[in-house]
C-alpha cells in the first residue's frame, strides 16, 4: 500500500513538473516578446531614417535648411516683353479658383530677363498658370508635381511664331521623403520575422526537451521531496475525476480583438501625426486616405461586439431591462469622457462653456453604441440553436429574423438623405455637398458641408464645433465644421449596425467557418457595388461622393466593404487557421478605451513626444510617432499580462 501511494505521488509530481515546464516556456516566450518590443523601440530610435540627401555644386539655389516639410523652391524667369502674373491650384482641388503666387516684371532689356522666387507645396500635384498683365490673357498652363525640398526654374520664352513657351527645369533634385517609411517597414518586418522565428524555435521538440531537462528535473525532485515530507498534505481522491467538468465559457474570438487593435493602433498613429505625411492625414474633402479608414472600422467592430456580448448576457439569464440600464450608463460615461478629453483645458480647471467643443470621437461612439445596443436588445434572441434550419428563409435568417431593426436603420438613412438634400440652407444651393471656400469656383465660400454644417451651427452653436476642419488645407474654407457632427452621427449608427450584422453572422453560423467567410464576402461585395453606383467610381463626380467629413452614405458603404474584407482575412488567419496569434495588435484591442483616452491625455508628455532636433524632418516625426505607438502597445501588453482591463 505504501509503495502504491509513493508511485501515485510520483505520477502526480511528474504531471506537476510538466506543468512547471510549460510555465517556464511561457515565461521564456514572455521574455522573448518583451525583448522584441524593446528592440523595436531601440531600432526605431537609432535607425538611419534621414532622407535628406546632399546635393553638390548647386548651393547658389535656395538652401534646404530654409525650406520646410512639403515645400520646394520655384524661380520664375521671364524673358517676355510683358509683365506676367503666376497662379497655382492643387490638382486635388475640385473646381477651384486659381491662387496667385505673384507678379514677374517684364525683362528690362533684351538678354536681361527678370525673375521672382516662390515657395510651392509638394503634397499634391499643382497646375501653374501664367497670365499676362495688366491685360489678362492666359499664356500657358503647366501641370507639375514638385518634389520635397527641390529647386526648380520656370522659364517663360517667346518662340519663333510668337507663342509663349513655358517649361520647368529641375535645378536641384528633391529628397526622397519616403525613405523613412521604407526603413521603418523593414525594421517592423524584421522584428516580425524574428518573432516568428522565435516561436518556431520554442516549438521544436529538441528545445522542449532541453527546457524540460533544465527545469523539469530539479522541479520534479523538489515536488517528490515535498510530497514525501508533508504528511499533512491532502490528496484529491481519484473519485473526484468522475465528476463532470464545469461548463467552460464561450470561446472569445481573437480576430475581433485583433481587428479592433489594428484600427486603434493606426488611429493613434495618425492622431500623433503620422510622420506628417499627407496620406496619414484626413482627406481635405472628397476621397479617402489611410486616416479616413480607421475610425469607422472601430465603430464597425464595436457593433460586432455588441451582438456577441448581448447574446452572451441574455443566455446567462440577464434581463433586457438590466442590460438597457447598463447600455445607457455606459453611453453616458463614454460621452462625458469624450467631452473632457477633447477639450484641451481639462487639466487647467473647469471647462469653459464659451468655446467647449461638444462633438467628438468618443461622443459619436457613445451615440452609436446607445442606438445599436438598444436596437439589438429589442430584437436579439437568447437561444439561436432552436431556430429552424430547413425553412425557405433560413438562408437569410441572420437578416430576416431582425427585420424590425433593419426597418429602423433604413428609416434613419432616409432621414439623412432628406435632411441632406432637401433642407434649405440660406445662401447655398439645396443639397450642396461641397467644401465652400475656393471650391466650386468660389461661388459658395460660406457653405461648407451644406445642411450638415447648418444643423451643427443651429443645434450646437458655432463656438461648440470644430474650428479648423480639414477643408482649410486645400479649399481654404474658413467656416467652422465638425466631422463628428449631428447628421454624420446618423450614418455612424448605420456603420455600427453593419458591424452588428457581422456579429449576427458569427452567432448564427458559429464554428461554420466557410459559411461565415462566404457571408462576409457577400456583404463586402454588396456594399462595394452600392459604393460604385453612388460614386460612379470617381472621387468628385458621383451622386454622393465618398466624404469622411460628412460621413456620407457612400463613405459608410465603402469603408464597411473594406471592413468586411479585412475581417475575413483576420478571422481566417487568426481563428480558423491559427497561423497568427494577433500579436501585437491583440493587446491594445483588449484595452481599447484605456489606450485611446491615454493617448489623448498624455500626448504631449515624454516618451510620447520630445523636443526634436529638426522639426521639418519627416524622419524625426515618423520616429517620434512610431515610438509613441510602440509605447502604447507595450503598455497594453503589460496590462494584458497583469489582467488589468479598463471597462466602462
Please give a structural write-up.
With 648 residues, the chain is an alpha+beta fold. The chain has 17 helices and eight strands. Strands 4-1-7-8 form a four-stranded mixed beta sheet, with no helix packed on it. α2 packs parallel to α17, α4 runs antiparallel to α5 and α5 runs parallel beside α7. The radius of gyration is 31 Å and the shape is globular. The two termini are 57 Å apart.
In terms of topology, how is this protein built?
Layout: H1 2-46, E1 71-78, E2 84-90, E3 99-104, E4 114-121, E5 126-132, E6 137-144, E7 151-158, E8 164-172, H2 179-202, H3 205-228, H4 254-271, H5 291-315, H6 320-342, H7 361-379, H8 397-400, H9 403-422, H10 451-459, H11 471-475, H12 486-508, H13 513-535, H14 553-576, H15 586-590, H16 592-601, H17 618-641
Parallel strand pairs: 1-7
Antiparallel strand pairs: 1-4, 2-3, 2-5, 5-6, 7-8
Amino acid at each position: 500500500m505504501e509503495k502504491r501511494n509513493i508511485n501515485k505521488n510520483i505520477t502526480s509530481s511528474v504531471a506537476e513538473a510538466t506543468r512547471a515546464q510549460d510555465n517556464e516556456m511561457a515565461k521564456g516566450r514572455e521574455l522573448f516578446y518583451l525583448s522584441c518590443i524593446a528592440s523595436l523601440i531601440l531600432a526605431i530610435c537609432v535607425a538611419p531614417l534621414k532622407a535628406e540627401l546632399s546635393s553638390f555644386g548647386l548651393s547658389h539655389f535656395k538652401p534646404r535648411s530654409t525650406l520646410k516639410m512639403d515645400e520646394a523652391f520655384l524661380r520664375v524667369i521671364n524673358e517676355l516683353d510683358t509683365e506676367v502674373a503666376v497662379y497655382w491650384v492643387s490638382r486635388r482641388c475640385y473646381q477651384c479658383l486659381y491662387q496667385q503666387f505673384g507678379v514677374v516684371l517684364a525683362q528690362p532689356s533684351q538678354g536681361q530677363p527678370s525673375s521672382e522666387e516662390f515657395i510651392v507645396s509638394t503634397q499634391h500635384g499643382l497646375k501653374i498658370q501664367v497670365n499676362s498683365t495688366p491685360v489678362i490673357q492666359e499664356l500657358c498652363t503647366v501641370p507639375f508635381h514638385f518634389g520635397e525640398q527641390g529647386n526648380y526654374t520656370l522659364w517663360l520664352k517667346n518662340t519663333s511664331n510668337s507663342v509663349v513657351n513655358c517649361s520647368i527645369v529641375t535645378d536641384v533634385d528633391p529628397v526622397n521623403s519616403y525613405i523613412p517609411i521604407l526603413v521603418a517597414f523593414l525594421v517592423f518586418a524584421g522584428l516580425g520575422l524574428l518573432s516568428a522565428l522565435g516561436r518556431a524555435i520554442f516549438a521544436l521538440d529538441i528545445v522542449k526537451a532541453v527546457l524540460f531537462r533544465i527545469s523539469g528535473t530539479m522541479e520534479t525532485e523538489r515536488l517528490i521531496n515535498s510530497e514525501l515530507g508533508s504528511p499533512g498534505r491532502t490528496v484529491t481522491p481519484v473519485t473526484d475525476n468522475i465528476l463532470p467538468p464545469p461548463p467552460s465559457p464561450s470561446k472569445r474570438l481573437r480576430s475581433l480583438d485583433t481587428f479592433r487593435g489594428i484600427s486603434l493602433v493606426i488611429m493613434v498613429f495618425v492622431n500623433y501625426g503620422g510622420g506628417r505625411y499627407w496620406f496619414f492625414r484626413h482627406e481635405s474633402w472628397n476621397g479617402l486616405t489611410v486616416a479616413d479608414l480607421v475610425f469607422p472600422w472601430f465603430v464597425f467592430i464595436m457593433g460586432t461586439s455588441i451582438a456577441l456580448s448581448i447574446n452572451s448576457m441574455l443566455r446567462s439569464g440577464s434581463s433586457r431591462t438590466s442590460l438597457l440600464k447598463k447600455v445607457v450608463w455606459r453611453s453616458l460615461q463614454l460621452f462625458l469622457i469624450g467631452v473632457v478629453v477633447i477639450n484641451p483645458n481639462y487639466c487647467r480647471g473647469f471647462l469653459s462653456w464659451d468655446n467647449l467643443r461638444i462633438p467628438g470621437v468618443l461622443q459619436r461612439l457613445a451615440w452609436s453604441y446607445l442606438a445599436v445596443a438598444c436596437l439589438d436588445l429589442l430584437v436579439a434572441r437568447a437561444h439561436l440553436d432552436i431556430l429552424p434550419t430547413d425553412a425557405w428563409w433560413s438562408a437569410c435568417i441572420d437578416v430576416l429574423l431582425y427585420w424590425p431593426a433593419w426597418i429602423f436603420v433604413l428609416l434613419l438613412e432616409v432621414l439623412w438623405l432628406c435632411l441632406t438634400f432637401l433642407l434649405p440652407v440660406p445662401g447655398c444651393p439645396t443639397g450642396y455637398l461641397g467644401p465652400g471656400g475656393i471650391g466650386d469656383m468660389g461661388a459658395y465660400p460660406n457653405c461648407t458641408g451644406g445642411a450638415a454644417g447648418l444643423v451643427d451651427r443651429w443645434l450646437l452653436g458655432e463656438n461648440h464645433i470644430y474650428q479648423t476642419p480639414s477643408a482649410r488645407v486645400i479649399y481654404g474654407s474658413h467656416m467652422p465644421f465638425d466631422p463628428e457632427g449631428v447628421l454624420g452621427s446618423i450614418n455612424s449608427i448605420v456603420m455600427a449596425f453593419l458591424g452588428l450584422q457581422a456579429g449576427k453572422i458569427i452567432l448564427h453560423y458559429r464554428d461554420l467557418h466557410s459559411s461565415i467567410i462566404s457571408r462576409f464576402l457577400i456583404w463586402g461585395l454588396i456594399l462595394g457595388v452600392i459604393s460604385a453606383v453612388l460614386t460612379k467610381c470617381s472621387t468628385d463626380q458621383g451622386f454622393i461622393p465618398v466624404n469622411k467629413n460628412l460621413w456620407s452614405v457612400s463613405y459608410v458603404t465603402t469603408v464597411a466593404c473594406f471592413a468586411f474584407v479585412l475581417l475575413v482575412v483576420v478571422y481566417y488567419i487568426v481563428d480558423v487557421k491559427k497561423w497568427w496569434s494577433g500579436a501585437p495588435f491583440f493587446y491594445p484591442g483588449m484595452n481599447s478605451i484605456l489606450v485611446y483616452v491615454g493617448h489623448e491625455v498624455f500626448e504631449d508628455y515624454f516618451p510620447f513626444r520630445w523636443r526634436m532636433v529638426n522639426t521639418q524632418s519627416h524622419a524625426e516625426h515618423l520616429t517620434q510617432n512610431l515610438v509613441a505607438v510602440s509605447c502604447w502597445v507595450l503598455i497594453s501588453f503589460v496590462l494584458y499580462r497583469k489582467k488589468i482591463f479598463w471597462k466602462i
